Structure formats: structure tokens, C-alpha cells
Amino acid sequence: MLSGRNPLNMHWKREGYPKASQDEFYVPQAFNHAGYVTGLAINQWIKSNVPGIQYGFEQIKTSPPSVNWKSGDYLLLNLVQIIDSALQQQ
């Protein structure tokens, strides 16, 4: 996920769902190397069921497991926290 590569050409692990390897290079890493702060606001369901989506991000904020995974309330709150944190690092 977020590798810019064809999934058929990537290294995968199998743990329930296919899981991308941390050995791959991911787009957020390119931004990190260029000096950008990267962050991901994600809900618990996606994080659990799409393993590897968080690779390469510096900051990851996850909604509590008890929150409806379709709700965007925590995602927006977490996104604002990531942005505030990035602005403080400047």
C-alpha cells in the first residue's frame, strides 16, 4: 500500500490478510527523506484489516477500537493533532 509499485511485484507476508513487507519502500518515506513530516489518521478497523498501510509514516493516530469504524469524528480530530504537531516541529 502506498508503494507506487504493482502489488504483484511486491514482497508479501501472509497473516490472515496479505501484508506488505516493511522492507519495501513506501511513498511516505520519500516525503520523510525530503524533510516533510508525514502522518496518518486511521480508524482501528482499517489498521487491523489492511496491515501495512501505516508503513513509512512518522506519526500515526488511531481511533479507539470502540468507535464505529465508519465515523469520521476521531479521524478529523486525529488529523488536526497531526497537523498541529507538524507545525510545532517547524
Describe this entry's structure for a reader.
The protein is an alpha+beta fold and 90 residues long. It has one domain. The strands form two sheets. A two-stranded antiparallel sheet has the order 1-2. Strands 3-4 form a two-stranded parallel sheet. The chain is flat and about 35 Å long. The relative contact order is 0.18. The model has no long low-confidence stretch (mean pLDDT 81).
Task: List the keywords.
90 residues; alpha+beta; two-stranded parallel sheet; 3 helices; 32% helix; flat
Please write out the topology.
Elements: E1 12-15, E2 17-20, H1 27-33, E3 39-42, H2 44-49, E4 59-62, H3 73-88
Parallel strand pairs: 3-4
Antiparallel strand pairs: 1-2
Fraction in beta strands? 15-25%
Indicate the radius of gyration in whole angstroms. Answer: 14 Å
- Domains counted in the coordinates: how many? 1
The number of E-state strands comes to 4
Distance between the termini: 28 Å
Shape: flat
Strand order of the largest sheet: 1-2
Return residue spans where pLDDT drops below 50 for at least 5 consecutive residues. none
Secondary-structure element pattern, one letter each: EEHEHEH
Mean pLDDT: 81
> How does the helix and strand content classify structurally?
alpha+beta
Helix content class: 25-40%
- The number of helical runs is 3
